[in-house]
Structure formats: structure tokens, C-alpha cells
Amino acid sequence: MTEYDLRTRRALRQVTLLEFGFGPETMRRCKLCPECGRANPAQDTHCTDCGAVLPEKTLYDFYLSRHRCCPGCGVAVTDYAVYCPECGTRLPKTGVTRRKETAV
Amino acid sequence: MSLFRKREPPASGPGAEQALPRAAACFTTPAMTRRAADWLGNLGGCRPLGILSDDYDDVVWQCTAERADLLLLELDFSNGVEDKDVSSRCDIAVEVRRKLPNCRVYLVCEDGHPEKLAALDKAVELKLIDGYCIGDLSAQQMRIWLEETAESMKAAKRRSSKLGKEEP
Domains in chain A: how many in total? Predict the structure, then answer.
């Protein structure tokens, strides 16, 4: 596979993630209603369906609290990743350390 | 003036058509494609070409065979239509540009789907496509795209002539 193929495949994956609502940019624009679960625009204060008060945090803030994310493009990466698989940014080290195999 | 001076394509007259960009249109239905090609012909400034099938292989093959300089692809965001969404159209754009690196690809999207904007903007940012429009394609927008295409054609010609000179 050539460099062009790899680059475009990565780019297409990002577009697909965004198009189908799973990308970080889409999540930053969404707030979930705690009552009915409907996705509302981030600037709204009340749910358009049930009228419940929406939280301050966007869906991405919640996602960020649960996953290790790339500071460059925002996608979730594994705890052990050194480089982001999407954009290639070198990732900062986390508190997670690899468990050393203990000698029996 | 040298008799052996390289001839430039004439700005007007019978040879002028050769310099115009080849604009391929592929809309969601054959009727719409024919209408778009007629509209492009009436607009002027390009040689229109209608691609009646919007199947991935057909579009790529026809663009390559006709050496298109510009490709207009229409999207359909209706439920249940998977092969006419942003990522599928980007797939076509990538393959066309792999075969024709100077071909410019623009998407014509229907109005009323703000959730697709993030993906469209990202596709432009990542240079998978050259641009998009929401709603009906206006004559003004099409002229801008044709100008961009003409500029890129000139730049490609300059590059190739420079490379030709550099080669011994």
C-alpha cells in the first residue's frame, strides 16, 4: 500500500466518523438530555423534546473524561499508544504504566 | 518573431474550445445529470459531460476516459441511501484524483442537513474534495469553480512545460 493510499484511507476514516456522528467535532456540538437522552445542539440550555435543563458539558467533555484522547485531532487512543493512529501526533505520556511481568 | 515559436491555443475561434475545462456532472438521477449538463453548456466556459451512472466504477472510468478537469457530484442524504453520502462520494473523488491528479472535485449537497457540515468541512480540509455547495448550484458559484479549474489547468501546464525543459 502506497503513502497516498494510507493518507487518503486515514482521511476518509475521519470524514466517515464525522458524517455518522461519532467524531470529536460532532460530539463537541452535542449535549445529551439527562432526562430523555435526546442529542441537542451545544448552545441550547433546555432540551427541545422534554424541556429539561441541559448540562454544561458537551458530549465530547464526557467522552474525554472516559477516554485517553489525542490532543491534535481528539480521537480516542489506547493507553499504550505513543503516536495517534489518525493524525500521527506524538501523544503525551499518561500515568498508566505497563505492568511488569513478575518472575515466578 | 520565430516561425518555430510554440503555438499557444487561440483565445477565440475554432481551437479555443480545446482550452476550456472538461466539466463532468454526475447527479443522483440520469434526468438530473442531463439537465445539469445542458445547464453547464448554456452557462459556457466549459465542455460539459454527463455521467449518467453514479456507480463508483462507472464514474471513475468515464472521468479517466474523457480526461475530465472538473467533476460535479451530487449527494443524496435520504434515509436508506448509503452509496450517495459524503464518504462514498469522497471515495470516488480519491480514486478520480489518483488517476487524474489535476481533476477538481466539487460536491452539490441538498439543503437541510446541518449534521453533514462537519464531514464536508473535514473533507475539504483534508483535500479529499475541492469544495461543496449547499442547496441549488448557482451560476455564480459554478463560474467561480470553473475559474479555479482553469487556474489549476494553467498551473499544471506550466509545471509540465518546466519539467520538459529541465529534462535533457
Answer: 1
Half-sphere exposure of B150 (CA within 13 A, CB side): 13
pTM over 0.90: no
Using the predicted structure, report yes or no on whether residue B19 has a pLDDT greater than 60. yes
Residues of A in contact with B115 (CB under 8 A): 21, 26
Calculate mean pLDDT across residues A44-48.
90
Sequence-distant (6+) residues with CB within 8 A of A85 are A10, A75, A77
Do B102 and B124 contact (CB within 8 A), yes or no? no
pLDDT at B57: 93
Q: Would you say residue B14 lies in a domain?
A: no
Q: Which of the residues B83, B122, B129, B130 would you substitute to probe the A interface, choosing the one with the greatest number of A C-beta atoms within 10 Å? A: B122
The whole domain housing B62 covers 19-166
Quote the minimal CA–CA distance from A74 to chain B in Å. Answer: 14
Confirm whether B13 is domain-assigned: no
Q: Are the Cβ atoms of A11 and B86 closer than 8 angstroms? A: no
